[in-house]
């Protein structure tokens, strides 16, 4: 790679760091994962779920869902497989992506992680424990399976007109990553750069 190409690549990577935007955070609820007993030791205090489980087992995952507003709201829960968006960010709940994006992926989290209930009507200030069942594949696998759950409030009518005629519509969702492995060993990556 030429010196010019390296500089261009570095500038392209750094450019998004300097983009600013204003948003209004008016989310009406909060979500907190309850870490299970088999949470991996490396992620003991993480804000996501990272479990080691034996093949063929199943367990219930818990999430504290709290209405922080002064009104009644409805919140939906969905589960999906992790994937990378077009801009390189990880999306842990890719429920509406085409199957072509997962060709060759034998274990997809959305096949094994199912919400026990998909919708809650929460009164102002109410807290509930939302649950999802994680069914571990019967055949042992190496590495980690990645996915997650998202919580989305219904009827979010949050739009803002900017001074230059641009209208911003915002939909807030909380996503909680769920990682699954059969053992503590994670294989080395196979990505190589250069020639």
Automatic annotation (TrEMBL):
Superkingdom of source: Bacteria
State the organism of origin. Weissella cibaria
Q: Which UniProt keywords apply?
A: Signal
Q: Which Pfam families match?
A: WxLIP_PGBD
Which protein is depicted? WxL Interacting Protein peptidoglycan binding domain-containing protein
Q: Where is the WxL Interacting Protein peptidoglycan binding domain?
A: 29-152
Q: What are the boundaries of the signal sequence?
A: 1-25
């Amino acid at each position: 790679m030429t010196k010019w190409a390296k500089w261009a690549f570095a500038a392209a990577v750094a450019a998004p760091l300097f983009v600013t935007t204003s948003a209004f955070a008016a989310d009406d609820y909060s979500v907190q994962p309850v870490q299970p007993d088999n949470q991996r030791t490396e992620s003991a205090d993480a804000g996501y779920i990272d479990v080691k489980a034996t093949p063929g087992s199943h367990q219930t995952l818990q999430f504290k869902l709290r209405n922080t507003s002064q009104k009644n709201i409805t919140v939906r829960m969905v589960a999906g497989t992790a994937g990378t968006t077009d801009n390189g960010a990880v999306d842990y709940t890719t429920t509406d992506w085409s199957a072509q994006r997962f060709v060759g992926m034998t274990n997809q989290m959305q096949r094994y992680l199912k919400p026990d209930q998909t919708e809650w009507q929460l009164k102002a200030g109410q807290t509930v424990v939302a649950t999802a069942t994680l069914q571990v594949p019967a055949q042992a696998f190496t590495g980690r399976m990645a996915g997650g759950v998202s919580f989305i409030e219904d009827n979010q009518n949050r739009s803002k007109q900017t001074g230059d005629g641009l209208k911003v519509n915002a939909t807030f969702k909380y996503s909680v990553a769920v990682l699954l492995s059969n053992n503590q060993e994670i294989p080395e990556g196979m990505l190589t750069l250069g020639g």
